[in-house]
């Protein structure tokens, strides 16, 4: 490990890892001292170990807030969903895991397939600036996206305002549907959120190292072992980049 690479990836001497605390699949709990625990923190810890530096977690309440700090020298790597809008501010590795995103619809809904949702008059509750919101913002042509601050708030809006669909990650929707008699999760997916590792632009050597690390972590079984370690349902190891 060259000193130049270590200095680029961890210029303070510590690898500062931005963590999206809202993703319950990748951050599945907290340690005894209150730090994040899960697949994403473990990936950051493994990178720090290979660099030979300590890791420090920089927690964010939402992925949008994490992305906002890409140019502010607050974190060195950000574990976040890879999206074109975010790629304006950071370079991404290929995905290390994927998460299906689909819709929940209420009882007696006339919507039976994902293709039914994008039509005039349909209102979709969605967590603002999530990776799937960014995807829907590019692809929804006729339906209305009604945004809220956070996943819990999007569920509350869907229920309280009688919206037509709730967009979300399938593992979360599997728990939401149990609370709503007659509600259904539409088969298939409108996208698979690509969870990757981002690095601020201008750190080219670090970006190459991270891309290689992610491919090796998938091929060696490390990512699969982390999913197993944290007993996470709904995560899939992403295919080779």
> Which shape, going by the Cα principal axes?
elongated
Q: Write down the secondary-structure element order.
A: HEEEHEHEEEEHEHEHEEHHE
Distance between the termini: 23 Å
Helix content: 25-40%
The main pleated sheet reads as: 11 strands, mixed
What is the strand tally? 13
Poorly predicted runs: none
Mean pLDDT: 95
> What fraction of residues sit in β-strands?
25-35%
Number of helices: 8
Q: Structural class of the helix and strand makeup? A: alpha/beta
C-alpha Rg, in Å? 18 Å
Topology:
Layout (H helix, E strand, L loop, with lengths): L2 H7 L5 E6 L8 E2 L5 E2 L1 H13 L3 E6 L2 H6 L8 E5 L8 E3 L4 E9 L17 E5 L3 H9 L4 E5 L2 H10 L4 E5 H7 L7 E2 L5 E10 L3 H16 L2 H8 L6 E2 L4
Parallel strand pairs: 1-4, 1-5, 8-9, 8-10
Antiparallel strand pairs: 2-3, 5-12, 6-12, 7-10, 7-11, 7-12, 7-13
Structural features, described:
This protein has 241 residues and is α/β, with parallel strands linked by helices. The chain is built from 8 helices and 13 strands. Strands 1, 4, 5, 6, 7, 8, 9, 10, 11, 12 and 13 form an 11-stranded mixed sheet that branches. Strands 2-3 form a two-stranded antiparallel sheet. Strand 8 (123-127), helix 4 (131-139) and strand 9 (144-148) form a beta-alpha-beta unit. It is elongated, with a radius of gyration of 18 Å.
């Amino acid at each position: 490990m060259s000193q130049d690479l270590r200095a680029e990836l961890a210029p303070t001497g510590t690898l500062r890892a931005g963590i999206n605390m809202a993703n319950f699949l990748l951050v599945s709990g907290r340690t005894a001292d209150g730090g994040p625990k899960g697949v994403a923190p473990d990936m950051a810890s493994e990178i720090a170990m290979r660099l030979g530096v300590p890791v420090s977690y920089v927690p964010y309440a939402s992925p949008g807030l994490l992305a906002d700090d890409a140019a502010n020298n607050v974190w060195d790597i950000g574990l976040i969903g890879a999206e074109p809008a975010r790629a304006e501010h950071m370079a991404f590795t290929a995905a290390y895991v994927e998460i299906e995103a689909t819709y929940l619809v209420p009882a007696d809904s006339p919507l039976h397939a994902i293709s039914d949702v994008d039509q005039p008059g349909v209102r979709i509750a969605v967590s603002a600036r999530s990776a799937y919101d960014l995807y829907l913002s590019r692809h929804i042509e006729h339906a209305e996206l009604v945004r809220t601050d956070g996943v819990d708030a999007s569920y509350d809006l869907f229920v309280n305002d009688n919206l037509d669909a709730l967009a979300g990650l399938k593992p979360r929707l599997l728990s939401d549907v149990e609370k709503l008699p007659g509600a259904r999760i539409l088969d298939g997916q409108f996208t698979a959120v690509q969870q990757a590792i981002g690095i601020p632009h201008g750190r080219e050597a670090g970006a190459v190292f991270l891309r290689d690390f992610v491919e090796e972590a998938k091929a060696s079984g490390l990512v699969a072992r982390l999913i197993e370690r944290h007993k996470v349902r709904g995560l899939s190891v992403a295919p080779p980049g």
